[in-house]
């Protein structure tokens, strides 16, 4: 199992980014996929989930209406379109499949991609 996140960079408040996550080592179409973020000095938290069918569920109230998750099942890639970015969106962003709690593959993470929102 491997995740390669990319697309993060320094961006000004109000700007947009599109993060990508290429997953491999498993059949991504069998799983919901999730984006997490970890702000400096804080624990990693869930941002948004996309189901196998492509339905989104936003878990973090502060990003509702601004972040949209999508998936390209043919290429085993998920995306996070981030609009109207705010300084509080700063952090390292990770993607991961929604493994069953008993599956040890749920402990595997990628390197993440750094998003910094600052003027």
Question: How would you explain this protein's 3D organization?
Answer:
It is a single chain. 0% of the residues lie in helices and 45% in strands. It is built from no helices and ten strands. It has a six-stranded mixed β-sheet with strand order 2-10-9-4-5-6, with no helix packed on it. A hairpin with a 6-residue loop joins strand 4 and strand 5. The chain is globular and about 40 Å long. The relative contact order is 0.32.
> What's the number of extended β-strand segments?
10
**Main sheet?**
6 strands, mixed
Mean pLDDT: 95
User: How large is the count of helical segments?
Assistant: 0
Strand content: over 45%
Distance between the termini: 37 Å
How much helix, percentage-wise, in residues? under 10%
> How would you sum up the global shape?
globular
Order of SSEs: EEEEEEEEEE
Low-confidence stretches: none
Q: Which class do the helix and strand fractions yield?
A: mainly beta
Q: Biggest sheet: strands side by side, in what order?
A: 2-10-9-4-5-6
Gyration radius, in Å? 13 Å
Features:
mainly beta; 6-stranded mixed beta sheet; 10 strands; globular
Q: Can you give me a brief rundown of this structure?
A:
The protein has about 120 residues and is an all-beta fold. It has no helices and ten strands. The protein has a six-stranded mixed β-sheet, with no helix packed on it. Strands 1-3-8-7 form a four-stranded antiparallel β-sheet, with no helix packed on it.
